[in-house]
Amino acid sequence: MTVERTLGRVDEDLRTxxxxxxxxxxxxxxxxxxxxxxxxxRLAEVCRLDGDRTEAGRWSYLxxxxxxxxxxxxxxxxxxDPVRIxxxxxxxxxxxQAASELARQRLLEIRARAESAAGKKLDWSxxxxxxSGPWWEGLTAIGCAIVVLMLVGLVVVxxxxxxxxxx
Length: 167
What we know:
This protein has helices at 3-15, 19-32, 37-49, 53-60, 68-77, 82-88, 101-118, 134-166. It is mostly helical. It has 2 domains: 3-127, Serine Threonine Protein Phosphatase 5, Tetratricopeptide repeat; 131-167. Helix 1 (3-15) runs antiparallel to helix 2 (19-32), helix 3 packs antiparallel against helix 4 (53-60) and helix 6 (82-88) packs across helix 7 (101-118). The chain starts with a helix and ends with a helix. Residues 127-133 have low confidence and may be disordered.
């Protein structure tokens, strides 16, 4: 389905009051065509209709006309972490593919901030989560502790059961 046809269906969804369907269509469009700024801006508009300032800030981040309060809400939701902001923008490919110079500059700026924070080179194709660092190690330790406690519990239950059979 072409961008124009999808946007036409979104308009029809909005005319019939189906904001949720319009939002789903636009999210799918942005996922498949992340460079399509018109789709991002339209998704931001629909998020505003839903009262979702955080998502409106995410999708209008690269726009020329954006609400600073919405962008701030998106950045706060990302913990103001430039790596998470970079991942949250759902961009793929080089910045040169941006449809406007302003969008390209914003992408370059957030990637530079993210690389500085991460201490390594990043690119937009890496959509996976970084499973390293202290938070992951802590989560792993908690998971291991739970498994050990369950095994100890099973050993105790098994020992009590064997003892009851014998006695």
